[in-house]
Design a protein that fits this description.
The protein is built from 21 helices and 21 strands. The protein is of the alpha+beta class. Strands 1, 2, 3, 4, 5, 8, 13 and 14 form an eight-stranded antiparallel β-sheet that branches. A hairpin with a 2-residue loop joins strand 20 (597-602) and strand 21.
Amino acid sequence: MGEHITKSRFDLLERKEFVQHLLDDISALELILEQELIESDVVRIGAEQELCLVDTDYRPAGTSLKLLDAIDDSHFTTELANYNMEINLDPFQLQGDCFTKVEKQLTTLLQKANKQAEKLGVKIVLTGILPTISKNDLGIDSMTPIPRYYKLNEVLTQCRGDHFALKLRGVDELTLHHDSVLFEACNTSFQLHLQIPQDDFIRSYNWAQAIAGPVLGVCSNSPLLLGRELWKETRIALFQQSLDTRKWSHALKEQVARVGFGNQWQKESVAEIFKEDISTHRILLTKPITHNALELLENGAIPKLEALSLFNGTVYRWNRPCYGVGGGKPHLRIENRYIPSGPSVLDELANFAFWVGLMVGRPAEFDDMPSIMDFKEAKLNFIKSANTGRQTVLSWLGKTVTLKKLILNEFLPIAHQGLLDYGVAVEDIDRLLGIIEERVKKGTGAEWQVKNLRNLRNEMKLDTVLVKLTEAMHKNQQDKIPVHEWPMIKKNQSKNESYQWVGQIMSTRLIKLYENDYANMATSIMQWNNIHHIPVENEEGELAGLLTWNHISELEQGHHEDDALVSDIMIRKVVTVQPRTKISTAKQLMTDYQIGCLPVCVGSHLVGIISKVDL
């Protein structure tokens, strides 16, 4: 997805040619592997930083293209949503002060971006999921206007055959349908790359799968989505569902998710992984390709395998195998895609050093993972860690162990020795792995968000809390503090709240009635809850009317029979507003119509209610 496809026709002829190039790329890769042309005498690291753009109110700011023009640096590129961007860092050889070099480059590029962003009234925030992102920010108008993104949305929707369905359950529950792929844009990551020697690729890949759960748990930073408290790393479930092309049916059939952990240990070569993906996933994007990979190889050139690279970019393994060419030499690498962005640059560098150290420090006893660990054990660890983060209880080599003990007693020593063996500077090892150790003991970014959400929510509207969270994140990132040292947010520690839209102050936890409910039950419910207005829905879940205390009084004065229904006495013509209706407009409507509340709807569906008390 990172490639700009500006000349693609996306027609049948191009698709036919692309398929042949894809098959030839696999054949060329097998020849490259057979001839041992893969660069294997050096190990490099690299990373991609995804980030969020927010305005002065800490809400998504769709200014990525303007900011990219102002920055004018090839390290920066677009993302799916116009309020996200990505920084592609340079590769560095794994030795000496390589992590300091990564840190310096990332910091320099962020400072460059911040300087231009400030001129546009925009701030940069590093976070797995931006707390202030709302349903209104997920429409097609928030997509970066580049052909490949529109085509991706079109093709995924066609494959799905229906709207994208999202259902997540944590402390809260989030269930809704959406008509575009923009939910994927909620996810921002810090993607890690590690070059792997050819003869060690499968052993390294299986090891990467085995350690993914524990590593994810201590790096979790995405507990909130649309104001709901869900998984400690909600991105894992969200990303799979937002790009899910599987069709739902009444038949019980096994389908492979486009985003996923995998279903088995790998046994052969990297080519077998690519073949497996081509066999189980449809081609989403195509492009015109000029040179044939087999012909280039026959003529002594190293092909880039353009068709395979484009296809591989639309299959979202959490540990993704990658082929590339650098300095005229082909190489293989593993891309770690599950690490979230943030909470700070220091935390990200610590995550990077920890994962790389674990990868290169793999003890010999883990060279053959299939013989010592069931794959489903590793997969379950990954899912559980995404759900419960640092508090996860894992199954490791058939034994039950807490994530904290596994990392402190086994993984940190492995990572430390691995980095030492590659000559990484001792100061960097101690500094960065020390951050991981403290985070294991004191808390992750996800825990910091949840603690503050719960603390502030007791006295404030949810929207205000989400703004405060985002504001504090930004400040702590600017202060370059690792998350285990972040203070709790003080309730008066913020700019004055600025409410503009109904959605910012409406009540969302609603008591509702249905048309066929009995009026006497409605009376009791209103008395029990001390409320004066109840919205009424029909069997399709659409707003059908509104019942007020005045109607109940009229019912009692009229001595209606006990079998009177809500539909007999409710108002059917209801004045409603939308979440993006201005508060001033809502206030005027209440005055004009002499009413005490306004149901808030998206289409015909009720999502909240705003009353004079809220105003």
